[in-house]
Amino acid sequence: MIEARLGPRAHIVLLGALVVVLAGTLSALAPSTFPTMRNMQSMMGQIAPLAILAICIGITFLIGGIDLSIVAVANCAAITAALVGEAMGPDAGALGIMAAAGSALVIGLLAGLTNGFLIATLRVHPIPITLGTMSVFIGISTGITNGATVFGNGYMSGLSTATVVLMPMTFVVFLVLLALCTGITLKTRTGFHMYALGESDKVARYSRLPVTRTIVMTYAASGVLAAIAGLIMFSSTNAANVSFASSYLMQAILIAVVAGIDPYGGTGRLWAILLGAAAMQMLQTGINMSLGSWSGSAFASNFIWGVLLIAVLGLSKWLSTRKHRTREAEVEEKLEEAEAVGSA
Question: For residue 58, which of 295, 343, 254 has the smallest C-alpha distance?
């Protein structure tokens, strides 16, 4: 049962092979720049906020939903942290950091609870709900800042500059969050409820599972994770704006899909987001190295990433279908042998 919910292993094998091939190819093409420690650390730092947003998409995918407001929530949380930090003053020290970070997390939690409550209560598809709340969050952020960029005092810059075992602290935060979410989905009753709800909403309700609570908790977690991603982005730039990271929503969705998490719910491995994010970042870095300052590099990266998405999903589907047919043939062969023995 658990294996069926995780999805085909062929997809993970294929995705892992893709990461290895990309790493080997790019290292061979740019041996003096790509495989260096500095470049690895740079890529890990860039992966962190986007991959955390992909976790938001992943956990909502598991219950058959989606959260399109994550970037708006991340920006709203970052703006809140900047304003609170400015109000506390540059001499507030640890208290100012805690107040700024805490206020951002509260904003994320409230946003997630709002999404979850509306979806669970109105029983409307999450796409229009989260599109609506996304507009609300953008409007609030724009009204507070008048659309201008808000700058911090640099009190959170340590989050983006610190390292742990040669890895950026932000990447370590992502790994911890990914491990925590993976453990919850695979080892707890809440995780079982999430997979069951994604498999069939009607069956989950008829089985008297806590559907409303599961939806609210999932979207609340998505809001908090989005706020953490916003704090990471704020720590690296010391600035927050309502329009920052506008492309991250689509990229986060692509990472979750490439990682093998079913958008229709009930199937997927959250930890595979690490592989999906790594493949995307290596591809992006490789394109930037190859094309340099060419003005069409952004178009090229989007085009190649779209082709990669289709190729991975197509090959994964082919491998899964082939394995399924092989199993059916083996079962039929064993049945025929059993019938032959019985007739003899």
Answer: 254
Tell me whether residue 81 is exposed, middle or buried, using C-beta atoms within 10 angstroms of its C-beta: 0 to 12, 13 to 18, 19 or more.
Answer: buried
Query: Between the CA of residue 10 and those of 168, 195, 275, 292, what are the distances in Å?
Result: 31, 20, 14, 35
Domain membership of residue 300 (yes or no) is no
Burial bucket for residue 193 (CB in 10 Å: 0-12, 13-18, 19+): buried
Number of domains forming the structure of the chain = 1
Q: Is residue 260 part of a domain?
A: yes
The H-or-E segment that residue 220 falls in is: helix 211-237
Query: Whole-angstrom Cα distance, residue 98 to residue 101?
Result: 5
Range of the domain at 145: 43-270
Assigned domain for 320 exists? no
Q: Taking a C-beta distance cutoff of 8 angstroms, is the pair 223, 80 a contact?
A: no
Phi, psi of 223 (to 5 degrees): -65, -40
Contact 270, 185 (CB under 8 A): yes
In a domain, 49, yes or no: yes
Q: E-strand spans in 157-243?
A: 163-164, 167-168, 239-240
Distance of CA 158 to the CA centre of its chain: 24
Q: What is the pLDDT along the chain (344 residues), one digit of tens a residue?
A: 455 567 777 778 888 998 999 899 888 888 888 888 998 998 999 999 999 999 999 999 999 999 999 999 999 999 999 999 888 877 777 888 899 999 999 999 999 999 999 999 998 889 999 999 999 999 999 999 998 999 988 788 888 889 998 899 999 999 999 999 999 999 999 999 999 999 888 888 888 899 999 999 999 999 999 999 999 999 999 899 999 988 899 889 889 988 988 888 888 899 999 999 998 888 887 777 766 656 666 667 677 767 766 776 676 667 666 666 766 676 677 777 777 776 66
3-state secondary structure of 150: strand
- Taking the C-alpha atoms of residue 177 and residue 172, their distance in angstroms, rounded to an integer, is 9
- Please state the length of the chain: 344
Token digits of residue 17 = 């092979």
